[in-house]
Design goal:
It comes from Cupriavidus pampae. The protein is of the alpha/beta class. 36% of the residues lie in helices and 17% in strands.
C-alpha cells in the first residue's frame, strides 16, 4: 500500500447529530478536513459528486480551494458523473484546478451511480443518441474530454481575433501538462475496467461492483484489477497505472468510536440492486480494535492488489472526528499493512 487518502460523500442535513447542516458547512469543512489530513500525513483528499442531492455536486471550486490551502496532498474525485458534463468546459475547469494545486489533481470520472431523479442528465441538456444508453453517453463525453486533455489544437481561429493568436489551430485553455495521466475511471465491472485500461486511464474501484461470480467483493475486485492490468499491458501503454480501492474502515480506539461503529453492523458483504436489473455486491464495513483490524485487512485481496486506499469518512460527524478516524488508521493500522 503506497498511498492512503480519504473519500468524503459530502452529506449535509438537519439531523440533530449532524455537524453539516448546510451546503456551506460541507464545502468549508471539506477544505478544513483536507488541510487536517495533510498535516496528519495522509496522501489524498477525494470527494464524491452527486447531483440533485444534499451532497457535494460541483467539484471544481472545492478542488481549487483545497489546492490553494494545501501543499502536498493529492486532491481528487471519486467520481464525477460524465453524463452531466460538457467535456470542453470540464477540461478548462480541470486544467485551472490542477494548475492552482501545482499538478496534484487526481480526477476520478465514470458513468455515475444511482440517481435522485429520473434521467437527471437531461435537465443539464444531454441525452444519449438514438439506440444508445446513458452509459454510452458517459463514455462519449469521457472520450471527448480525454482527447482534449492531450492539449492539441482543434479549433479554427477567427480571422479578426480580439487578441493575437499563436499559429495554427487553438486548444482549450488553460492546459495543464500531465493531467491526462492523472485521470481515473470508476469501474463497477470487469468489462469497464478493461475499457479503462485500453483508454489509458487509472482505475478506481469502490465499495460495490456488479456481482459477476458470487465470490466476496474483495476477491471479485482483485480479479477485476488483474483483468485491468492484463488489458493495460496488452494495450502497450508505457507508464505504470495506478489503482485505488475504497473501504469503510474504523479503528475502535475510544468509547466514541465504539458507540458509533462498534456494533457489528454491515460486517459482511450484501447483494442487491440499484438503478438497473444487474445484481450488485456491496462491501462490508471494517470496524475493530487496531490489532484485529490489521488481521482482517491483511486478508482483503483487493487492498493488497491496489496501490491506493481511500477511506470513506462520516463527514456529518465533523472535521475533528473525521480527522481522528484518519489519524487512527494512519498511526495504528496502516504501517502494519506496508504503508511507508
Amino acid at each position: 500500500m503506497k498511498k492512503i487518502g480519504f473519500l468524503s460523500f459530502g452529506h449535509w442535513g438537519l439531523s440533530p447529530s449532524s455537524k453539516t447542516r448546510s451546503a456551506a458547512d460541507v464545502l468549508l469543512q471539506s477544505i478544513d478536513l483536507a488541510v487536517a489530513a495533510e498535516e496528519l500525513g495522509a496522501d489524498g483528499a477525494y470527494f464524491r459528486v452527486h447531483h440533485f442531492a444534499q451532497q457535494l455536486a460541483s467539484p471544481f471550486p472545492l478542488l481549487a480551494a483545497v489546492g490553494a490551502r494545501t501543499k502536498r496532498i493529492e486532491i481528487g474525485t471519486g467520481v464525477i458523473d460524465m453524463r452531466y458534463e460538457n467535456p470542453l468546459y470540464m477540461a478548462e475547469e480541470a486544467g485551472a484546478a490542477d494548475l492552482i494545486s501545482g499538478g496534484r489533481l487526481q480526477l476520478g470520472i465514470s458513468r455515475g451511480s444511482g440517481e435522485q431523479v429520473v434521467d437527471g442528465w437531461r435537465y443539464f441538456g444531454y441525452a444519449p443518441d438514438e439506440g444508445e444508453t446513458h452509459a454510452d453517453l458517459a463514455r462519449h463525453h469521457t472520450e471527448a474530454f480525454y482527447e482534449v486533455l492531450l492539449g492539441k489544437g482543434f479549433a479554427q481561429p477567427a480571422s479578426r481575433p480580439m487578441f493575437p493568436n499563436p499559429p495554427g489551430l487553438l486548444r482549450v485553455e488553460p492546459h495543464s501538462p500531465g493531467l491526462r495521466d492523472r485521470i481515473w475511471w470508476g469501474s463497477g465491472s470487469d468489462a469497464t475496467a478493461r475499457w479503462a485500461a485500453t483508454m489509458g486511464m487509472n482505475l478506481q474501484t469502490s465499495t460495490l461492483k456488479n456481482d459477476e461470480s458470487g465470490l466476496p467483493l474483495h476477491v471479485q475486485q482483485a480479479e477485476q484489477i488483474r483483468a485491468y492490468r492484463e488489458a493495460w499491458k496488452a494495450a502497450g501503454h508505457t507508464r505504470e497505472p495506478r489503482v485505488s480501492v475504497s473501504r469503510s474502515i474504523f479503528a475502535l480506539v475510544n468509547d466514541k468510536d465504539r458507540a458509533y461503529f462498534g456494533r457489528g453492523t454491515q460486517s459482511t458483504d450484501t447483494v442487491g440492486f440499484l438503478d438497473d436489473d444487474v445484481q450488485k455486491i456491496f462491501g462490508r464495513n471494517y470496524a475493530a480494535e487496531p490489532e484485529a483490524l490489521i488481521e482482517q485487512l491483511a486478508k482483503d485481496e483487493a487492498i493488497a492488489a491496489a496501490d491506493t486506499l481511500l477511506l470513506t469518512v462520516p463527514n456529518q460527524l465533523g472535521v475533528d472526528y473525521c480527522a481522528h478516524v484518519i489519524e487512527a488508521i494512519l498511526q495504528k493500522v496502516a504501517p502494519s499493512l506496508g504503508w511507508r
